[in-house]
Amino acid sequence: MTFRHRLRRDWPLLVMVLPVVVLLGVFHYFPTLGNVIAFQDYSPYAGIRGSEFIGFGNFQRMFAEPAFWKAVANTVSITAVQLAFFFPIPIALALLLNSVLSSKLRNLIQGVVYLPHFFSWVLVVSLFQQMIGGAGLLAQTLRDHGHQAIDLMTKPDTFILLVTAQAVWKDAGWGMIVFLAALSTISPELYESAAADGANRWRRLWHITLPGLRPVIVLLLILRLGDALTVGFEQFILQRSAVGGGAAEVLDTYVYYQGLLVGDFGYGAAAGLFKGVVGLVLVLVANRFAHMVGEQGVYSKS
Amino acid sequence: MSARAVWEEEPTPVGRFGKPVVLALIALAVAFPLYVVVVTSLSTTEAVTRAGGLVVVPRELTLAAYVQLLSGGVVTKALLISVGITVIGTAFSLGITVLAAYGLSRPGSLFHRPLLFIVLLTFLFGPGIIPSYLVVNALGLIDHYASLILPAAISAFNLIVMRSFFMGIPSELIDSARIDGAGEFAILRRIVLPLSKAVVAVVGLFYAVGYWNAFFNALLYINDNSKWPLQMVLRTYIVQQQPLPTGAGGVATGIAGLSPAPGLAIKMAIVVIAIVPVLLVYPFIQRHFQKGVIIGAVKG
């Protein structure tokens, strides 16, 4: 079929896709190109065309900056702590819920634990503040019983555990969905014949359930590792003033403060670009690794 | 109630009693904070004073805080702005997502692969905060409500979910409509959409919740605090604990016949106002989980 023939046939489809392509162009691809200012001594008055190119000047300054490395270290530690303390919880929750026989009870619990996923971070932080903050219920109860009140929302030392607890409260239930779906695809006959062969519940868990979940676990681990430099922006910007930048500064908030609030746009863009490029490399490496261990990964060459 | 399979062991005592306890604790962890916030928002000054802060055991209940908040002032305005952004944004996002999902649902159509690639590639990297800000600024959208809608209007995830649903519609239906002389727009409206109510509803609700919860774009793009959506108000007066402005433009005080609500109740009422719309649409989202729309999509 010739191009003109196909155009005449398919032009309505192209018209339908057009608004999305335009929006992605303006608000995704065009700003992506705008990252050239990371290589400029950018001035908003001179614009991209009028600003001077300084090569890797912004990056040199950034790599010499302890505050930048502090933000990188905070980000990576938070990812590590969340991998250890967040990641297994949805799996455990899915196994627990899957073993509940009553479907009514199962739906009820599912309904309750999915809910916080649909709350905003502002709301989640507000609720935590009311429960365990300085004027919250915990402090209030401690005071009533003659103890010293504690404020868990402003302690830099335990901040990493606080944000992990918030993430668990908000998203552990939601994270469970994928595992429940994977569990539902494991054939009951496997369990039955294993039981007939004398495997008890723990051996069935080890030899049937966990291997059945393996592809999903690997996939989600890859996604999380690829996103190692992204720990969420709103959660941290909301709490940064309460605990201070020492504990709460992550890469995204660093970009926001150093770039936008200080007005050092080129420098901020350099920090943002660093995060974007390292993130992209991490995804590609993690995906490659998944293929090496024989899993599907996120994408493959088709 | 589905019964235990015959080959399964009797549950152990730990399983029989431990499981319900654990499940109850999990449910409580979600529900208890919400309960305390609601009860406190409905409490009188005396009740708050006696409790020494948050109220766990409800006593004298009053709607004073809500009356005060909703009779003009910062919160009323922010609420209206958030409702407006959510309604207009959701309609806009849903409209262009449906169109694009259908436009991309025909493998072999002109430019099908490159266009799909443009959408999928957005998963791999974001443009970055600073360049996005500069583009929004250059378009003159700072302090404009459009900055809360346009940059966040497309979720590639929602688009792909809808596209895979459309692709599952039997092609015989579409082909026969085409033989009858229907154009693509007519096919979308008369054949595809009536078969896709569930996925359209779910994607619409996802967009709506996203707009309602949006805080980041407002933080970046809206400097004028008279244009703040509710989440910004929540952040300023609850999380940052700045005092609510009173009098003109602030919280209306001294409603006739009602004693003024305590400050804490007012704050908790703002939290409740931010939660209620999510709770209202949640049962609809939940119903569609059970139909498997989302699970099917997550599995890909």
TrEMBL record, chain A:
Transmembrane segments: 12-30, 71-97, 118-139, 159-184, 205-223, 265-286
Subcellular localization: Cell membrane
Top-level taxon: Bacteria
Principal location class: membrane
BP GO annotations: transmembrane transport
Matches recorded under InterPro entries: MetI-like, MetI-like_sf, UgpAE/MalFG_permease
Statement: the UniProt record of this protein carries the keyword Transmembrane: yes
Domain ABC transmembrane type-1: 72-286
One Gene Ontology cellular component: plasma membrane
Gene3D superfamilies xrefs: MetI-like
Coiled coil segments of this chain: none
Entry protein name: Sugar ABC transporter permease
Automatic annotation (TrEMBL), chain B:
Pfam families: BPD_transp_1
Keyword Magnesium listed: no
Keywords from the named record: Cell membrane, Membrane, Transmembrane, Transmembrane helix, Transport
Transmembrane segments: 21-42, 79-103, 115-136, 142-161, 198-222, 264-285
Principal subcellular localisation of the protein: membrane
Residue ranges annotated for the ABC transmembrane type-1 domain, each copy included: 79-285
Cellular component, GO, one term: plasma membrane
Membrane topology: Multi-pass membrane protein
GO BP term, example: transmembrane transport
Subcellular location: Cell membrane
Family statement drawn from the similarity comment of this UniProt entry: Belongs to the binding-protein-dependent transport system permease family.
PANTHER family with a match to the protein in the record: ABC TRANSPORTER PERMEASE PROTEIN MG189-RELATED-RELATED, POLYGALACTURONAN_RHAMNOGALACTURONAN TRANSPORT SYSTEM PERMEASE PROTEIN YTCP
Protein name: Carbohydrate ABC transporter permease
Source organism (scientific name): Kribbella soli
